[in-house]
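User: Design a sequence. Structure:
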């Protein structure tokens, strides 16, 4: 008989969330969906047709963070370009969600871009996300040494993009797309450096928000429906096909189906986890009330009250801190 211990439950929740995250990444690595992201967020493709971007300007197969669960039936529909692992002995290892090479039309000639797309579930992660996006861009530039340029051939540096898709942003950022880039500013005098000499990194924050907010159209609606754990399979198919003219290939159909199954599991686990947390919170509050009651009625110290309640030694520091904070 399987015993559902807290550790086993944590592993199950983590595994379920990891599978869901992997499904999101695989969906985003579809060429047509990437083309919509590029047209909406990258200046070089603003005037390009979606089909043109997908078929002409995206190179090879995207490098995706996870090993694909679904079989790769059509290599032509993916991109095989740069590695998505950027390792440094001094700076550690960075694993990009999706990383690929693209070329863009510029004054009649093609320029090469390195594009990174990240699917971010939480907006507040202990640091500003834009700073992580800047770091990723910086690493993508420094990693070009020895491949795109050597010695002092800095003119061969390729422009890099890092696009973060935030699925749960704060209210003031919902349904927004914000771009950050290097610009020229004259402090004294009036000089003009060719833009291509310094326009080498751009960070884009795409914050989803749902149908209740403003600006719910275009890429914001596409990504919201595509990545939403609440949107059903039929709704995803309808939006992809009818509103964004994205053909439902067998692979894409299978990915959408699997993601919907996983999203239901994630929501079920979330509800169960929420109930467990609520029960735990109620037990903590009940014990705190009992400790205070004994301290008040018996004139005991907190330690004496916890001893009378047979509270384990390992928990006493926690309850002492809670008593001091309240």
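Assistant: Done.
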């Amino acid at each position: 008989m399987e015993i559902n211990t807290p550790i086993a439950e944590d592993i199950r929740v983590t595994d379920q969330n990891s599978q869901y995250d992997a499904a999101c990444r695989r969906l985003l690595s579809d060429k047509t969906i990437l083309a919509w992201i590029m047209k909406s967020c990258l200046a070089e493709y603003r005037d390009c047709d979606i089909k043109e971007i997908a078929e002409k300007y995206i190179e090879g197969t995207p490098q995706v963070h996870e090993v694909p669960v679904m079989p790769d039936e059509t290599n032509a529909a993916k991109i095989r370009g740069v590695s998505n692992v950027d390792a440094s002995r001094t700076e550690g290892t960075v694993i990009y969600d999706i990383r690929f090479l693209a070329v863009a039309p510029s004054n009649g000639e093609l320029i090469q871009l390195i594009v990174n797309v990240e699917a971010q579930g939480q907006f507040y992660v202990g640091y500003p996300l834009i700073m992580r996006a800047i770091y990723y861009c910086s690493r993508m530039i420094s990693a070009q040494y020895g491949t795109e340029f050597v010695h002092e051939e800095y003119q061969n540096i390729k422009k890099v993009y890092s696009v973060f898709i935030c699925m749960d942003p704060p209210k003031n950022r919902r349904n927004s797309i914000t771009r950050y880039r290097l610009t020229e500013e004259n402090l004294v005098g009036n000089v003009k450096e060719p833009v291509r000499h310094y326009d080498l990194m751009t960070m884009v924050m795409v914050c989803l928000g749902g149908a209740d907010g403003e600006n719910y159209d275009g890429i914001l609606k596409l990504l919201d429906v595509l990545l939403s754990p609440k949107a059903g399979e039929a709704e995803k198919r309808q939006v992809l096909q009818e509103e964004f003219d994205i053909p439902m290939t067998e692979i894409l159909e299978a990915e959408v189906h699997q993601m919907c199954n996983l999203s239901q599991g994630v929501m079920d686990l979330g509800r169960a986890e929420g109930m467990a947390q609520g029960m735990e919170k109620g037990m903590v509050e009940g014990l705190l009330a009992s400790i205070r009651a004994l301290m008040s009625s018996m004139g005991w110290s907190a330690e004496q009250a916890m001893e009378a309640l047979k509270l384990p030694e390992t928990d006493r520091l926690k309850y002492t801190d809670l008593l001091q904070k309240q």
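The two ends are 43 Å apart (CA to CA). The longest helix spans residues 250-298.
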